[in-house]
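S1.2 Input.
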Amino acid sequence: MRSGTIHEVVISEDRKLIKPHHDANDPVKRWLTCTDHHAPKSIGIDMISSRIFTITAEGLLTVWDLKHFNIIYQFNFKKKAQALEAFKITNRILLIFEHDVHVLDSDPKTNKFNDLKPYNLILNKITFATLNQDEQILGIATISAAQPDVTLYATDGGLVKIKQITGFKSSIRYLDFSTDNFYM
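S1.3 Output.
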């Protein structure tokens, strides 16, 4: 490759090609900057549908303003991400990594994100994590050398273990709560 040449970049599944511009304010260029890190692993939308949260497989968290398609926050956790889940009742984001969980508190007016230490956990390899419908219980499926398990945590004021379920013969790939929050 010679310096100064323009290369075409695939940006969509329909194989549409565009030439990237040098304008830093171009929305396509900002999107390419995010996906150059690695493809997004998980996407969530905040409680008032004004921001999109993306996290890449390598742990780059990016927050987008939906109205202007601007990046309003970006932080690289530099670890393998499993997923993210945006809280719908409070302005928080649940980040699930390979061995730990973080909850960020966000302020939509100032676009500041604070890591809530009482909500952070370090666990065995996480296979899946999700919140129940009223966001009062976090279910986390993990696997260790001994056996897989599911642990339920209360989310009021921090993550407090309320129940551990063991005895599974294979790893848990998915958890879900019923809409009335009575069943998992």
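S1.4 Remarks. Residues 59 and 118 are 21 Å apart (CA to CA).
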